[in-house]
Amino acid sequence: GMARRQHRRHQTYQEGQDEQHLRQLTLIRDLQEAVSERQLWMAYQPKVDVRSGKVIQFEALMRWQHPTLGFIPPDEFISLAERSGNIRILSRWMIDSVCAQLHEWQHQGHHLSAAINLSAEDVMDVDLPELLLETLNHYGLEPHQLGLEVTESAVMQDADLAAQSLEQLNQAGLFIAVDDFGTGYSSLAQLKRLPVHELKIDKSFVLNLNTQENDLTIVRSTIELGHNLGLRLVAEGVENQASATLLGQLGCDYLQGYWIAKPMPAYQVVDWLNDFEPLELPFPKPLSEP
Ligand code: C2E
Ligand code: MG
Ligand code: MG
Ligand code: MG
Questions:
Q1: Which of 12, 18, 162, 169 could pair with 155 in a Cys bridge, judged by C-beta atoms 3.0 to 4.6 Å apart?
Q2: 136 CA from centroid of ligand 3 (Å)
Q3: Which residue minimizes the CA distance to atom 21 of ligand 1?
Q4: Hey, CA dihedral for 241, 246, 249, 252, is it positive or negative?
């Protein structure tokens, strides 16, 4: 009867919870050797300039191939690494891996730039600026070849410390973007204090741009706001030509998304670049240069 069904449903729920918990514990335990066991790798996704149609940068995105659980998405393991105190190990590996890759591409004649994603822990790490600059120097790279993507919430955990750290990196020539813009809770007053060059409009506003009136309004106002603050605008999650065209008309500066390319392993990047034909989008209305 009813009572029995409910009991069973409850058991199933509990089992689901236990399973989830066990998975998290396993992942946290195994994260510690993911670096040394070479289970991590970086995927690269291009950002394209709307005006020239050309690739301006690649975003580096972390991937984890777990030996028994398979592919683990970064949205799952990054937050576990943050909560279990392992994120700095991953970030240090990532910084070295991306710079080594840029060095290798450079050696092959491709002077590329990459953006890395930083966690709140990284932004609060007082040793980070020096580490980044030393690593760039070690691989013979220019500071402008490395961009940093930080989320609003990462920066807002300690806005003063973040401002100090980012200012140091900005002075050294690194470009800084606010990622997932619109989903956090930063005030414009706080944002204004940060040495930011770029706003990345979160993909949740971009994915259904063509059908959701609200999303269109948000994206249009964000582009206007960003430009008024002297910033470049990037839209992530561009999945079709209609969105790309619309974003171009709205004056968005850079596009990123599956319509252009999915994140790819490093060994595919040069071939992909050689095959890539510059986008031809309707030229946006002229803007005052930020
Ligand atoms: P993010 O930095 O906002 O990266 C954008 C995410 O959107 C990526 O997911 C990317 O693969 C995905 N994406 C790009 N284009 C499209 C599209 O057209 N449609 C859809 N549906 N998705 C698209 P991914 O690679 O799973 O990364 C998720 C998040 O994990 C990243 O969001 C970032 O916050 C975090 N992350 C990834 N790598 C690192 C890392 O090395 N360090 C840190 N701290 N966080 C990272
Ligand atoms: Mg990002
Ligand atoms: Mg983002
Ligand atoms: Mg995101």
A1: 162
A2: 24
A3: 237
A4: negative
Reading the block at residue 228, the tokens are: 């008024």
What percentage of the chain carries pLDDT values higher than 90? Answer: 78
Cβ burial of 126 (10 Å; 0-12, 13-18, 19+) is exposed
pLDDT reported for residue 286: 52
Cβ-proximal residues to 36 (8 Å cutoff; 6+ apart), any chain: none
Sign of CA dihedral 36, 28, 127, 174: positive
- In sequence order, what are the beta bridge partners of 114? 58, 146
Entry pTM: 0.93
Q: Ligand 1 pocket, 258 CB below 6 A?
A: yes
Distance between CA 253 and CA 137 in Å, rounded? 30
- Residue 275 tokens read as 């095959």
Instruction: Tell me if 125 CB under 6 Å of ligand 1.
Output: no
At 75 the pLDDT is 96
- How does 145-167 read in b/e, with b if 16+ C-beta sit within 10 Å? bbbbbbbbebbbeebeebbebbe
Contact partners, residue 280, CB within 8 Å, separation at least 6: 53
Distance 167 CA to ligand 1 centre (A): 25
- For residue 237, the ligand closest to its alpha carbon is 1
Residues in the chain: 290
